[in-house]
Amino acid sequence: MSPSRGTRRRSVLVALFGAALAAAPARGQPAGSAGSAGSAGSAGSAGPAAPSGSAGSAGADRIIRLPLDAGAPSVSAAASPTVVRLGAHFTLYVTATFAEGVEVNLREPIDLGPAFEVRRRWSEDRPTGDGRTTREWQLDVMAWEIGELQVAPIAVTFTVFGRAGQVQTNAVPMKVVGDLGDVVEDPRAMRGLAVPAGLWARDWFWIWCATAAGAAVGVVVVALGLHRRRRRRVRLVGGAAIARPPRVDTTAERALERLLAIERSGALDRDADRKLGYAQMVDVIRDYLGARYRIALHDRTSSELLARLAGIAPDGERADVAAWLAGCDLVKYGGMRATPAEAGKVLDDARALIVTTTQLAGAPRAAKVAA
Question: Which of 59, 73, 159, 264 is the most exposed place for a label (fewest CB within 10 A)?
């Protein structure tokens, strides 16, 4: 039975392949030696036969380099949606399908042209069922130019057979519009015409006018207050505000200063020194009245002092002095125990007595000047 046509074809191919291997020189062996060995074998010379693995080792040392395109992945790009507004986001899908042993990635930085900006990206791998893998990148992109545009092809790098290569996706057409009317095709979805609406704007003119007027009134009020204060000065004595008369002589000023010194010494606040403080206040009033009326009153009793003032001091002044001295004598000689508050009131009454008598003494002189 004659062999079939397919069997004869395979036999011919095997014979040709063996002849090619035998003709190829072994690595590290000169070409002439291989040819000599082949001639000797063909002549059938006697001698030891070559090992059966020699031809096989010569063929195994030969390196067959496969082309880089054999492992290149298949890539594509698409966008959704393809019609967007200016400044809006859309998603750009980049897919790469590759075989086992191939590594793929996007080339950095991702350049989509001047009209588009990549904000963020993420990827996902899924098997295809035929031993290969599909990797999909999703790019969040913003459009910054208007018109019929194209997303530039994206470079996808890969490594296979120990070498690196690069392929590019297709360009993606895009349409970027500047208003809603270019996107919405249904006229009923758009708002109808409306009358012009007035815009309210804040006007600061009257606020500034009111502020300026208020400031002017404030300046006038302050000026009037300073003018009145200049005309009527207020003098602080021991923390109490006493209206200063138009004219206070040196005698009254010295007496007021001595009363202030007694208050600051704290003698009226201490139980042990309070009687001494009363005696000091009485001495101040005696010296003040003696200096005012030019009479000696320092060593006189209260009754002698009042008798000496008879006919010299006004009756109202003598009555005030008599009442004040009577209260002090109760503490000095009568054994009455005064409290700090009562002692403070006696001190204030002494100040009022000095100021009042000074005003009464200046009134007649003012009347003469007016006449």
Answer: 264
CA distance readout (Å), 163 to 64, 102, 138, 168, 276: 15, 10, 27, 17, 115
Percent of the chain with pLDDT over 70: 69
Q: Please give the single-letter amino acid code of residue 50.
A: A
d(CA 94, CA 125): 12
First to last CA, the chain: 174
Cis omega (within 30 of 0) on the bond before 81? yes
Could you give the CA distance from residue 229 to residue 224 in angstroms, rounded to a whole number? 9
Average model confidence (pLDDT) across the chain: 75
pLDDT over threshold 90, residue 260: yes
| Phi, psi angles (nearest 5°) of residue 28 | 85, 0
Backbone angles phi, psi at 155, to 5 degrees: -85, 130
Element (H, E) at 212: helix 205-231
| Separation between Cα atoms, residue 289 and residue 245, nearest integer Å | 18
Own/partner pairs, 54-59, CB within 8 angstroms, 24+ separation:
54/26, 55/21, 55/22, 57/26, 58/21, 58/24, 58/25, 58/26, 58/27, 58/29, 58/34, 59/21, 59/24
Shortest CA distance to 235 belongs to which of 260, 211, 266?
Answer: 260
Q: In terms of pTM, does the model score above 0.70?
A: no
Residue 330 pLDDT > 50: yes
